[in-house]
Amino acid sequence: MRDMTVDPVLPSTSVTARLQRHPIRALAWLFFALALLFALVAGLKGDVFFFRLATEALIFGGLSLSVDLLLGRTGLLPLGQALFFGFGAYVSALVLKHGLPSFWLAMAVVLVTTTLVGLLAGVIAIRAKGVYFALISFGLAQVVSKAVFNTRELGASDGIIGVPVPQISFGLFSVDAASPAGFFLLVLIFIGILYGLLAYLMETPFGHQLAAIRTNEHRVPFLGVDPWRYKLVAFVLAANVAGLSGALYPMLRGFVSPELMFFQVSGNAIINVIVGGTGTLIGALYGSAVLTVLRSVIGTFTAHHQLVIGVIFMISVIFFPRGMIGYVVAALERRKETAP
Amino acid sequence: MSAIHQVPTSVPADAILSVSDITVRFGSLVAVDGVSFQAQRGHITSVIGPNGAGKSTLFNLISGAIEPSAGRVIFDGQDLTGLPPNRMLAAGLARSFQITNLFFELPVRENLRLAAQFLEHGRGLLRPVGSSRVALQRVDELVERFRLEHKLNELAGFLSHGEQRRLEIAVALAARPRMLLLDEPTQGMSHADTQETGEMIRGLAAESLSILLVEHDVDLVMSLSDHVVVMHQGGKLAEGTPQQVRGNPAVQSAYFGDAFHA
Amino acid sequence: MAEMLEWLQFVLAPQVINGASIGVAVVLMALGLTIIFGLLDVINMAHGEFYAIGAYAAVALLGLGLPFWWTLGLTPLLMAVVGYVTERTLIQRVFHSKERHTLTLLLTFGLAIILEDALKIVFGANPLRLESPITGASEVMGLFFPNYRLFVMALGSLVIAFVWLVVFRTRLGAMVRAAAYDRYMAASLGVPVAVVYAGTFAFGVALAGLAGVLLAPIYSVFPTMGRDFVLIAFSVVIIGGMGSIKGAVIAGLVLTQIQSISSLYISPVWSDPLLFGIMVLVLIWRPQGLFGRLGHA
Questions:
Q1: Taking residues A243-250, what's their average pLDDT?
Q2: In angstroms, what separates the C-alpha of B108 from chain A's closest C-alpha?
Q3: Which residue has the higher pLDDT, B247 or A13?
Q4: Which of A156, B87, B114, C75 is the least buried, fewest Cβ under 10 Å from its Cβ?
Q5: For chain B, domain boundaries
Q6: Contact B198/B213 with Cβ under 8 angstroms?
């Protein structure tokens, strides 16, 4: 019998299959319920700062979702996913500032352009396996971010400022992006839809095929499937999730800068996913929420929050490889088994 | 026992697989040298030979894992030379692996479902897994045939060796291929399991599935096969019925070496 | 004709020398990376930070009044210790896992984050300038080249030759290559595999530290210097072939020359993208790089 160490950092998809049933779904609902509760409390208090922070946590949570789709579900480590995030942010800023300050237009343009860019990058990157993919992803992000940093037309190191805050119209009513509570709820629903879409896809034959590719890519062609196609679709999908999340950023902050594509952003997203629970999808959102708050809290004491986050990350990788969600679910399962 | 393959019994005996002048070179090493043979439809054709004879390479080639340096592979009238494995399967050619190559981290049921998904031909790719009726039905058939009912939710990696070998064949069979390439199916099996596997192979052939078998167990091969191809040092040494091959002095010498006669 | 000679002498030659002095340091970095990958199968994302630490260590030691030559010799030794400890405490933990590549990548990635911030804490975020320890210039072929650059080229070449010698011509090197080729076989032949692993990692880190010391007077020293440099090092390693010493040397020298000469024609901001573009092309055409793997070459 083959030595079966189910590697804990990237949990086997069968563990995930069991997790999928009820614990994760419950935890997902819990996340959105907690978010709504937060909105209620903060709204009553007329708060602005925490709403903005939480919205930012959600936006980066979207990026983290895209990382988990690749890392936790397809087995590809994207060290440069911030590339698409920043790309979406810049395109959105350009549309809003130089086109029309329309939410829907910005999103539509981001969707189309990110798909194209994702296809191009994907075709280059997907050929490579494992570590090489990670390095191509890393390198692409480095190079593009440097190029943007040096391009005067895009604002160089200052980025694009003065992005108008759009009104998001739904026909009967509209949400002002300037409204902290309103925009927070909009982003919550938006990210919620992205999450729901991804969670659904993972339960389809398409999603299961990705899991198979992650587990044993070699066997997959002998089952009649071309893994390259699936990986490319997953890659483009992840690019879109990252890009659309990034598109929300200028609406929140009014500006975009090359920092959005820097390795720090990609790295933080990976940390969010691993600390939250690789492969669980909702773990990415929890991770983003917890770590954003943590970064903010630590940031009030010292500028060196990255060091603390780095330590937490390494502790997580070595001692808690299943992440927060993984451990909660395992604890729930154990309780279920010992229940009378 | 449910019949896995419904193929009309009045199929004329013809070559379902035709391998001609296949040569595989790895740099300066010639692993397979100008091998040609045919496998008849509905028959069990076996490839035997001492270690290093090139059987595995030949197998890898026919199943699409590697490309030949020269020669052709014609399957069921189609030229499949050099095509990747997923195209081979689409044409009706499936294989099992000598070193068990399952999705060890996935449950047995999922292994089978993944393989059976082929039968959906892309339908329901974006619909919940439970709605792939055809695939799920196939899984049930295979589970019953290969007696895996009690292991459905077990991770494939936790099965016993014999169970894994059964699952390996079940997975290969899931897509209803017209020809099955079995790569040392009884490798590491107990005597009892080997006999059982032999029975199963016979059963599959009885349902008109064409089988190409690579095996080390010469007795098993001789008792099962309609046709035997003997390879030696990359080339074809002999072929014929089991009796013919058994009595062939060149074959004996290849297996036991000239030292035997010294 | 005279114009051509002048161009060669006054335009091309300086670029080549410049490129070579950087190239030598890049090769040292790449050698460290490729040896660590070739033997340990470990992707060391913290390699850039070790390079930075080497540079900062030089700054610190020089600040303490230590003469440059001592600093040059001491820093790699210090880095070796750092590397040894890192391997034993961190890498070994995840070494026997099935997903070793990803885990070590993530761990060293986390380490890199911590180290970079630590450098910021200890030394501040501002770039530090280091005085060139060897001043003056020498005349070569009618041109003046900074002595320090010539020194870097000379020392670097010596170290590279030394590495090659050790790996391919000594018993130690044979042990390392044996362990790279087949760990269990090597262990059963009496090779102290655990020590060899930790020692090799330490050696690779020391090379990075040395590169840091050598380049510190040429570039300024700042906390994020490692991150940019590591991409170049990885590109060189990938193009040369992960685990190939020959590949690291050749790719490192050739690519820095390409960068250096191309900077005559294109804006310097495109020199890294150029390198990266070459890496992508190589990955598409020949994913295993130009040459083989340590132990398997």
A1: 96
A2: 10
A3: B247
A4: A156
A5: 1-6+14-92+177-262, 106-176
A6: no
C255 belongs to a structural domain: no
Helices (H), B85-183: 85-91, 108-116, 133-145, 161-173
3-state secondary structure of A23: helix
Residue A295 has φ and ψ, to the nearest 5°, of: -60, -40
Question: Does residue B157 register a pLDDT over 50?
Answer: yes
Whole-prediction pTM: 0.87
A303-317 confidence digits (pLDDT tens): 788 889 999 999 998
Could you tell me if B246 lies within 8 Å of chain A, comparing CB atoms?
Answer: no
- What pLDDT sits at residue C79? 92
- Count of alpha carbons within 13 Å of C233, Cβ hemisphere only? 36
Q: Is B113 in CB contact (< 8 Å) with chain A?
A: yes
Q: How many CB pairs under 8 A join A and C?
A: 103
ipTM associated with this complex:
0.85
Q: What is the extent of the structural domain holding C113?
A: 24-123+134-224
Residue B257: pLDDT band (50, 70, 90) is low
- Give the pLDDT confidence score for residue A15 in this predicted structure: 52
The predicted pLDDT at position C194 comes to: 82
- Quick one: DSSP state of residue A163? P
Instruction: Please tell me which of the candidates B85, B106, B157 has its beta carbon nearest to residue A13.
Output: B106
Residue A179 backbone dihedrals phi, psi, to 5 degrees: -80, 120
Structural domain total, chain C: 1
Can you list the domains of chain A with their CATH numbers? 13-333 (1.10.3470)
The token pair that represents C180 in the structure block: 């790279």
With CB atoms and an 8 Å threshold, state whether B107 touches A204. no
Is C141 within the bounds of a domain?
yes
* Cα A309 from chain centre: 18
CB-closest option in B103, B115, B117 to A215: B103
pLDDT at res. A240: 97
Distance CA(A308)–CA(A295), nearest Å, equals: 9
pLDDT of B113 reads: 94
Q: What is the DSSP letter of A136?
A: H
Which residues in chain A touch residue B161, judged by CB atoms under 8 angstroms apart?
1
Structure token pair of residue C117 = 């911030």
Whether the per-residue pLDDT at B261 is higher than 70: the answer is no
* Residues on chain A bordering chain B, Cβ-to-Cβ distance under 8 angstroms: 1-2, 4, 6, 12-14, 17, 200-201, 203-206, 208-209, 211-212, 215-216, 218-219, 221-226
3-class DSSP state for residue B28? coil
Question: pLDDT at position A14, please?
Answer: 52
Q: Is residue C216 part of a domain?
A: yes
Main-chain dihedrals φ then ψ at residue B198, nearest 5 degrees: -60, -45
Please identify every stretch of chain C with a pLDDT value under 50, giving residue numbers as ranges: 296-297
The token pair that represents C38 in the structure block: 């070739």
Nearest to B188 by CA among B145, B217, B230: B217
Q: Is residue C8 part of a domain?
A: no
What's the topology of domain B1-6+14-92+177-262? Rossmann fold (3.40.50)
CA C51 to chain centroid: 8
